[in-house]
Amino acid sequence: MKLRDLLLETNSALTANKARSGLTILGIVIGIASVIAMVSIGAGTQSTIESNIEGLGSNLLTVLPGVQQAGRAFVSAGRGSAQTLTNDDAEALRSVSGVAAVSPEVSRRYQISATTGNNTNSNVMGAVPAYAAVHNVAVAMGTFITEQSQRSLGRVAVLGPTVSEDLFGEGVDPLGKTIRINRINFKVIGMLQTKGGSGFSNPDDMVFVPLSSMQKLLAGSDYVSSIAMTSEQKDLMASVQAEASALLTMRHRVATPDFSIISQADILGTLSQVMTAFTVFLASIAGISLVVGGIGIMNMMLTAVTERTREIGLRMALGAKRREVAAQFLAESIALTFIGGAVGIGLGWVIARLVSRLGSIATRVSPESVALAFGVAAAIGIVFGYYPARRAAKLNPIEALRHE
Amino acid sequence: MMECRDIVKTYVTGEIETQVLKRVSFTIRDGEFVAIMGPSGSGKSTLMHILGCLDVPTQGSYLLDGRDVAQLNDDELADIRNRKIGFVFQSFNLLPRASVLRNVMLPLVYAGNDPGTRSGLAESALRASAFPEQFWRHKPNQLSGGMMQRVAIARALVNNPSLVLADEPTGNLDSVTGEAVLATFQRLHSEQGRTIVLITHEPYVAEHAGRIIHIRDGQIADDHEVRQRRLVRNAGI
Ligand SMILES: Nc1ncnc2c1ncn2[C@@H]1O[C@H](COP(=O)(O)OP(=O)(O)OP(=O)(O)O)[C@@H](O)[C@H]1O
Ligand SMILES: [Mg+2]
Fold first, then answer.
1. Cβ separation of A1 and B109 shorter than 8 Å?
2. What is the pairing mode between strands B195-199 and B33-37?
3. Which of A219, A235, A257 is the last residue of a domain?
4. Considering A16, A75, A126, A364, which has the largest number of Cβ atoms within 10 A of its Cβ?
5. Residues A278, A192 share a domain
6. CA of B42 to the centre of ligand 1 (A)
7. How far is the CA of A294 from the centre of ligand 2 (A)?
8. pLDDT tens by residue, B171-213
């Protein structure tokens, strides 16, 4: 039997009952589409989060007070609950070899009002000039916190674009205007560029004041809530982290650190783990529907073998070998999964596009996930088609011919 | 050459054993035209299935061209059925989904002929069994019983088998078409030297053969040459 004949037979068998073939294919379409959509949503979310974290600053190390776990520290907003870090610690860290910049920070939420009468509740960040370099932020207009205003307890503020919009309205130049934070007036000296995204500490929605002003005028404490620092090179991160840890342990005169140093790599690593688990979870739920689709194929093929028992007997009587009978039924189930797989990949892609258009999740249909889905579809066709095909091939010709 | 030695065929249905063939022995030489006669249920079809390598005897042995069929594997049997034997089944057994032409081509599909040769052979087989050309692309369920019979005959002859086994091939035909089919068998036999085994319960049909084997209750009751053999003069198809 030639391949062309096999395909002809497959076509005529599958088109003989279009509704049944269609429904069976639909089962596979849904399975494959959900695998593709779920994997691409998972992968898209993962890469969005990773780029957000990278956007926080490169080669970044963050010193936090208290002992925290890498994964949890990032998620818990209540940093600074233990007060162990000081400006002097930050100053000392500058001497660690390989450190590019050090940015001690104090952040708290305050009610902020403008002379226009608008209010907003935002994060106020006490920052030093190095903050801009460490966290990759740049001003769109005016200046960032300067050395001078830092030294002179300047009552000046730099606004994130979202805060500026909330207080003064869209497109209004906030420079020179006055805002009130905790009943103290600050003069706006700059506005940041929009960074976009939905990072965890999104600078778009922050107000920056000099660290000294933050500590003396607003927070009333000399402690810092965190110290961010960057290393000169990526491969110096580990040594900087170790040296900084040793230095602070010595300065604090403690046996075990009363602070933690978290590197971006730690955060990325933890989050990637979480995200991979999440993607696998989504994919396996989708995989269940794929298995259900496969069972649909097996069900249809078993019915077909029973219905066409006489046909099988006839073909054998006319000279079909057992393996040719098996091939015919296997070809049918593989054709079903291939059609279902192809349509499912298309549908999954459309779903992924719709999700990225409607939601804020970026999705990515990777060639690997398409290959995986197709491989799984082919495997399902073979695995679930094998048993019915074998049943057909094992029939006794004369009994099959006499079958009613 | 077909040689049956003490063939017994027993069917088991639940607890009940029915012996359909009871120690049947005979030999059919190459080039013979044999009619098998007998009342309904006497085991004619069962015997033909064994002769056609579709079924195996419960006891005894069947030798086709000197080879014991019980010793052959499934693939060898499939090849013999495909190349050597042409079947006309009592109940036609046409594929409902396929057109007349594709039904006739089916044995050639498994013989591995290329499509061009296939349709040529199928068309001449359909012409030889006097099947009207305007129905070639119809499905079997659009045909009359007699037409289905002729499709079944065309399919049996399409692979040029050296052995033709026909189970009641004229059962559904009017006398004119029946004559035509008998003429075809006689021509295949006399001009091309093929072996023909024809099952019938009509003495008139059986007398077209050279030899008649009577079966009764699964045993050979009589086996004799036809003294006054009928010849179809009008071998018009
Ligand atoms: N698969 C089977 N299982 C049980 N009994 C069977 C089976 N096949 C045939 N028989 C029995 O064997 C007997 C002979 O059947 P067979 O078909 O050979 O008869 P036949 O001579 O061809 O009759 P007819 O002229 O009516 O076609 C019948 O009694 C039938 O019931
Ligand atoms: Mg019969």
1. yes
2. parallel
3. A257
4. A126
5. no
6. 7
7. 42
8. 878 888 888 888 889 988 998 899 999 999 889 999 999 999 9
User: Which one of the ligands is nearest to B54 CA?
Assistant: 1
CA atoms within 13 A on the CB side of A229: 29
pTM of the model: 0.74
For residue A307, the chain B residue with the least C-alpha distance is B96
Measured in Å, residue B75 CA sits from the centre of ligand 1 at: 26
User: Could you give the CA distance from residue B143 to residue A361 in angstroms, rounded to a whole number?
Assistant: 62
**Side chain identity, residue B209:** A
Number of domains composing chain A: 2
Residue nearest to atom 5 of ligand 1 (CA): B11
Q: Compute CA A81 distance to the chain's CA centroid, rounded to the nearest angstrom.
A: 29
pLDDT digits (tens, 9 = 90+) for A367-378: 888 888 888 888
Chain B: closest CA distance from residue A309 (Å): 11
Q: Radius of gyration of chain A from Cα atoms?
A: 32
A242, A169: one domain: yes
Question: Is A319 in contact with B52 (Cβ distance < 8 A)?
Answer: no
Residue B63, strand partner residues? B3, B68
Q: For residue A322, which residues of chain B lie inside 8 Å, CB to CB? A: 74-75, 78
Chain-centre distance of CA A87, in angstroms? Answer: 35
Q: Quick one: A235 and A310 in the same domain?
A: no
Is residue A264 situated within a structural domain? no
Q: Which of A310, A401, A402, A403 gets mutated to test ligand 1 (max ligand atoms within 8 A of its CB)?
A: A402
The pLDDT assigned to A73 comes to 44
Q: What pLDDT digit, counting tens, does each position of A251-266 carry?
A: 888 888 888 888 877 7
Based on the domain organization, do A245 and A312 belong to the same domain?
no
Of the bound ligands, which one is closest to the alpha carbon of residue B20?
Answer: 1
- Determine the structural domain holding residue A123 and report its residue range: 85-257
- Tell me which residue in B81, B93, B155 faces A401 most closely, judged by beta carbons: B93
Which residues, in sequence order, are CB contacts of B154 under 8 Å at separation 6+? B104, B122, B125, B126, B128, B129, B131
In this predicted structure, the answer to whether residue A174 has a pLDDT above a threshold of 80 is yes
Distance separating alpha carbons of residues A52 and A50, to the nearest angstrom: 5
Q: What is the pLDDT of residue B119?
A: 92
Q: What CA–CA distance (Å, rounded) separates A196 from A204?
A: 7
Least Cα separation, residue B109 to chain A (angstroms): 6
Q: Is A16 on the interface with B (CB under 8 A)?
A: yes
User: pLDDT confidence of A144, banded at 50, 70, 90?
Assistant: very high
In a shared domain, residues A289 and A201: no
Sheet containing B59-64, strands listed edge to edge, beginning at the edge strand earlier in sequence: B16-28, B2-13, B59-64, B67-68
In which order are the strands placed within the sheet that holds B85-88?
Answer: B85-88, B163-167, B195-199, B33-37, B211-216, B219-225
By the 8 A CB rule, do B26 and B4 touch?
yes
